[in-house]
From TrEMBL:
This is Nit6803 family nitriliase. Residues 6-272 form the CN hydrolase domain. It comes from the Bacteria. The lineage of its organism: Bacteria, Pseudomonadati, Pseudomonadota, Alphaproteobacteria, Rhodobacterales. Gene3D superfamilies: Carbon-nitrogen hydrolase (3.60.110.10). InterPro entries: C-N_Hydrolase, C-N_Hydrolase_sf, Nitrilase, Nitrilase/CN_hydratase_CS, Nitrilases_CHs.
Amino acid sequence: MRTDTIRAAAVQIAPDLTGRAGTVERVLNAIAEAADKGARFIVFPETFVPYYPYFSFVLPPVQQGAPHLELYREAVTIPSPETRAVAEAARTRGVVVVLGVNERDHGSLYNTQLIFDADGTLALKRRKITPTYHERMVWGQGDGAGLKVVDTAVGRVGALACWEHYNPLARYALMAQHEEIHAAHFPGSLVGPVFGEQIEVTMRHHALEAGCFVVNATGWLTEEQIASIHPDPALQKGLRDGCMTCIVSPEGRHLAPPLTDREGILIADMDMRLITKRKRMMDSVGHYARPELLHLVHDTRPAQPRHEAPAPEAAAPSEEEPADV
């Protein structure tokens, strides 16, 4: 039984909507602040670098060309100076960092989650398997290779983004790999109060069902940023509320009051003994499972647009027909 206690931090701050450099600076400052408070595990919001594509929620497709191209220009490649800066911050402070980014891979963008271990190595790069609704105009799809739990300095960590949590088989894929800490993130400042309410239900349910800790970070927009995204007050309503930054125990309890109405860094201590306490009663992928009746088939192959087939072996010349010379 694990007996250590790990301090976690969930970051709810605004990005720099003018570009990735400013947002990365905010990431580095937040890592330093959280580490100074003793955090060993730090989670940032969905596609936080350079920013979540809020424009896609309030603009019709015909008007999205310019902001979409700007997102291409500001998205990060992996590796890049930006990812190396975050890796170095994780290494210097000895913390595990989970960061959401807009990843550019040649002609496509992806909603990507990065897990940096405490030694600065990139332990996992995964892409959201199915972008939601308006997001499908912005990002490509991920694959099963990213549904992976990784060993880190703080334990076994898995991650999903936003409404991937409504895909029970995606969650089960991580549960079956015995995740101890689940990193989640949502855009925040979106949809309205009901979004935050739904996030809370979802995070607490996964913690209970998986028997793990959940550290969830949602984003934040200032009033000035909301006005810069769209001038119509009616549409601006869709860019407020929806925040639910929280840290939840395997018993489904908040370990600190959720952060919903302002910027900040939520801090809480995770007593890892609670994992065994919960799973003693209900281990959904162990003694409470019935794999002979119900089980998941998980295709872990990376999706590739091109596969090389081996060249056919040359046929040996027949005795009846001599080979050309």
